[in-house]
Amino acid sequence: MRAFFAFIEQQGHPLVLSVDLAARLEPDELAALRACGVLRPSSPRGTPKHAAREEISAADFVRLLRDLWSIDPRGLPTPGTIFEEATTLGWCGQGPEEREVVLVARRRGVQGVLARMRRILALVLTERWLEPAQRAKHGPGAFVAAEALDAALVVRGGRVVREGVEAPGDEARAAPSSRAPGSGRTGARRARVLVVPGAKRFNGVTFWRLDDRTVRVGVAGRFHKRTFADLGMGHAQSREPTKVWEVLLAFCEGHGYLATSRFGGPVATKKLVSRLRASLRAAFELREDPFHLYERGTGWRSRFVAHPGPPAER
What we know:
Number of domains: 2
Mean pLDDT: 83
Order of helices and strands: HEHHEEHEEHEHEHEEHEEEHEHEE
Shape: globular
Strand content: 15-25%
Distance between the termini: 52 Å
Radius of gyration: 22 Å
Number of helices: 10
Low-confidence stretches: 166-190
Helix content: 25-40%
Structural class: alpha+beta
């Protein structure tokens, strides 16, 4: 992906020749960027190959970043260009760890963003824009942190993902037999997930708690019964429900709300909610965050609708 961001830096505008892209990018990178809409054809049919152009879609590029960094735009419009010095994409994190996320697409904009006096994550196009002293001062966890996109984004399995972060939906795509016994660090196999089809957004999903082991799920006017095992929330050895399943039931009991005190305090609950987030993304094959940002005094709130009991007879 480094070549792609170097290309953006040099280009300065959204229209690019397809032959130039093919000469600079690896085929899998080019295919992944086209698949997620970041690169879109912009030439009429019949245009000779040497003259065919593609557009770098600012909207799809921003949507990709918002998905991968779980950024909540809070009503901010999707930017029409990615070539500004600095553009606020939204906010990530919860509570005291919440920070504004700013995309810096011009080298001259880096210093100004890093000098801001509020908690920020600056996403800069390339590592070359950060001086050694800036990298040391603005590393992960800093009050003003900086992350280089050319180092953070990679192509894996035909998709653009964050380096070192499991892509949402990977759990559903990895069958239990995809690893040989004993391979990897532990030899553990992933739980098989029975995907719930038809969901476009989590706000179109409804859960009803049927009993301690089963929920009913409503999506697009259709209903599906799922156990904890169907949703990949069972222990591999004991085949009993995990705490992640208990958290899902707790959201049902709370009509979509969850206080942090129930599962051992804020830190423990945050970890469980994070695991539930990954499981739900896999079960519905969605990259959207199923939860709103944590709010002090309110706790966690789901984007999906949740009920503590079965639906009324239809």
